[in-house]
Design a protein that fits this description.
Elements lengths: L1 E2 L8 E4 L2 E11 L7 E8 L5 E7 L3 E4 L2 E12 L2 E6 L5 E4 L15 E7 L4 E6 L3 E9 L14 E6 L4 E5 L7 E5 L4 E6 L1
Antiparallel strand pairs: 1-6, 2-3, 2-6, 3-4, 4-5, 7-8, 7-10, 8-9, 10-11, 12-13, 12-15, 13-14, 15-16
Length: 189
């Protein structure tokens, strides 16, 4: 049990029966009336941002969240299959539990967030950047830019995902992709 005085960014609490992580908070002491705390928190089960106001000193329930490293093994009709790197325990998840699943290739390391009390998987996150090979790219034609310096084209990478990249990226190139925004970052030598 904790109170609003214990709030800090990243603290995991239970709100309306769901595990949430505090993203932002502000203690407010108005001239008239009691103090309160405005909070923005992320629901760890579905990623939605919630806003709430707590009275100062209000008791809250803390939630224990654990992050564990896993390796992606393969995908089949029952979902995605992962293995823990140290215990070799295997688990499988549905596609909607994995963020940016189409950027994940076999052997990829991911981080899973578990609700420590009931060993329930809350999310599966790829590293911030992944390196993938371009398997299909339309050749850039001179004059396609029409005066634009930010001209881009769509390419297909080895996992089947389509990414927008600059015109100079060709088939066979390895590129680095930001998994949070799904944007091209750079070519890899």
């Amino acid at each position: 049990m904790a109170t609003t005085a214990d709030f800090k960014n990243g603290l995991c609490i239970e709100y309306n029966g769901k595990p949430c992580a505090i993203v932002w908070f502000q203690h407010v002491k108005p001239g008239k009336g009691g103090a309160f705390v405005k909070v923005k928190m992320r629901n760890l089960e579905n990623g939605r941002i919630l806003e709430n106001t707590f009275n100062a000193g209000e008791k809250i329930d803390l939630v224990r969240i654990e992050r564990r490293p896993y390796q992606f093994l393969y995908k089949d009709e029952s979902g995605f299959h992962f293995m823990h790197n140290e215990t070799f325990e295997q688990i499988d998840l549905y596609e909607d539990m994995v963020d940016n699943a189409d950027l994940m290739k076999e052997g990829q390391y991911v981080e899973m967030m578990f609700h420590a009390d009931d060993e329930r998987v809350l999310s599966c996150e790829l590293p911030p950047f992944v390196e993938l090979e371009v398997t299909y790219a339309e050749p850039a034609v001179k004059g396609d830019t029409s005066g634009s310096t930010n001209a881009q084209k769509s390419v297909t990478v080895e996992t089947g995902a389509e990414i927008m990249v600059p015109l100079f990226v060709n088939q066979g190139d390895r590129i680095k992709i930001d998994t949070r925004s799904r944007e091209y970052s750079e070519r890899v030598k």
